[in-house]
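Why do we care about 3D structure at all? Because function follows from shape, and shape follows, mostly, from sequence. That is the central idea of this module. The next example makes it concrete: a single protein chain, its amino acid sequence, and then its structure expressed as tokens.
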Amino acid sequence: FQELSLQNPELIILAINTRDKEQAAKNFLKRRNIFLYVLFDTNNSIGDVYGIRSLPTTVLIGKNFVIEQRIIGAINWQASKNQHEIKDFIKRNVNPKKGGKAHGSTPERF
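And the structure:
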């Protein structure tokens, strides 16, 4: 996901951690030089809102926080088909009036 985020700076990628203690997860990411936005969901409240029933699940949230797509299972975002899909998603959801930033606010990155 980090590479996808670096290639598409207007895309905000959130990792939702439902299993690990916050400090342990931060240490894991730091040791591996992974810099992603992480939400810690120990009571699965975020998972419930977005209908996440198994891991991993990818949820593409577009304009006005509307779910456009839910992908259950691992996905290779570097595959050309998936790169095309994410570029289309960005085109549909980037607000050009805000300097090419995605809609919504940005959480803290770890």
